[in-house]
Write a structure and sequence with these properties.
about 30% strand
Amino acid sequence: MIDIVPIADIAPDRIEHLLDQAFGPARHGRTAYRIREGMAAIPTLSFAACDRGALIGTIQCWPIRFVGDDGVDVDMVQIGPVAVDPARQQAGIGRTLTAHALDRAAQSGLADALTLIGDPEYYGRFFGFDARRTALWRVPGPVEPHRLLARGAAVPARAGLLGPRIPALA
């Protein structure tokens, strides 16, 4: 039986090891990492999947923002990475973790502006993400435009930049 637990219950070195297994140690240079650089994951939206104590999957969600060229500023949540132990992939663990995080985002009132970088067919089919409003977005690094996905009523459909959600200095 798979248990979904808060990611805070898992030692950080175990999480990093799983992420290395799933994506390799060069993952830190990817665009998704640069978008959320310097931010801590949102604890209430980040989870781990465990099977009899073994860590088999994780999902993390991050506070980011969209700053439009026209001055609009939208707080957003970046979903991912969704990591599954390579020996357990294709068993629905990633889908279960994603559904759990999205349900919690909805319960918490944080589902109005969600984004991720991923497979449009998969995330569209199962979770309603698409690239219809992201065509004019810029990100700090390379991305295939059709893989920059979003969902939610507050997702902006205008030119602007995604980056960390850093509070304004007082």
